[in-house]
Amino acid sequence: MTDRSLRLLMVAPAPVIPVPDGMTLDAKFVEGMRLQSDLWPGQFDCILRRGARSIPFGARVINPAQETFGLHVLEEDERLTQAHFEGYDLVMCSADDDRNLGLAPLVQAAGARLVVTLEYTLETRLKILFLTPGRSLPRRCISALRLMARELRRRRFMASAQGLQANGYPAHSLCRKSDPDALLYLDNRMSPGLFATKTEMDARCDRLLSAAPVRLVYTGRLEPMKGAQDLIPVARALSQRGVTYSLDIFGAGQLRDEIANQIEAGGLAPQVRLHEPLDFETELVPHLRQNADIFLCCHKQSDPSCTYIENMGCGLAVIGYENRMWSALAGASIAGWTSPAGRPQELADAVAQAAGNRVQLAERCRNALAFAQAHDFRAESRKRMEHLAKVAEG
């Protein structure tokens, strides 16, 4: 990428909260924008909308004037117009955000080329709908019909783009139907300094080969859509099978109190421990690198969660439900095991299998690290920026 004159505008769904000394943004979003703008051959601007009341998973205050990317903040209900896109070579926005589905004619009229990103397939949206509590069945069915109708608009929007980028294997499979050259990327925030070291991997493998208890971990939201309700049933099944293990659960969400009560009622302490969320870089990553062997993933839906690569980058094998994302990733990385979705007893069987073959478990921990290192944040970002530049230049 040598042309330094290319102008890129990203319409992003990230939360923003104006404050007296600047803007409060999600910390991971800031890191991503800084790296991607550094890799982009020209001006890199971003449009965000007000409306967020809080930023729950990490916040950072920035001074936009001191950043390498431009930041334009709109009102929550402000419509994008052709004028917002004038002067840009390329506009990138997400097909997951319904507010973007009518933007193609405006981008075209402004003389820019359009690249559309996608993370969620219709299957994933429907699973999330039916996994999220609080609605009656008739209301869920009505919402499902609306999702299916909106999917037609989403597909037309994607077909109108000059380029497509897909986060994760399920989205990539869909995007290739509109664009055989659609780019696959695996979003994460792992940088070289965060990966497990050789010393840590050797210590983990030596410990596993000594027949010490396997150390399971779950990190993420404690919500039904993430399958967190299956964590304790898996733990109970492991105890019943006589597997020596520990399970550390890090996260917050509506199921937290229920999980805490289940641990106490089931007499699962001290091998099952519930923790508050930790800072990703300074606390969680060091803990995972030194105190865990397996990421236990109960995700039933096929979203491209960055937690897969981030746990793998800490040297953890993954044992998870065979949703379309993890099934494909497991096949590509040989970094873990899959189990039928929604069956915690069989997920426990997979853990027991891993615990019974320590040589294979150690090998898959090493495979996990190697795969994550090949797909770290900089490598994936560079790949995305190179693809965008190619689309911009026609």
From TrEMBL:
Keywords for this protein: Glycosyltransferase, Transferase
InterPro entries associated with the record: Glyco_trans_1
Domain Glycosyl transferase family: 216-367
EC number: 2.4.-.-
UniProt-recorded Gene Ontology molecular function terms: glycosyltransferase activity
Enzyme class: transferase
Pfam families assigned to the protein according to its UniProt record, in alphabetical order: Glycos_transf_1
Protein name: Glycosyltransferase
Organism: Aliisedimentitalea scapharcae
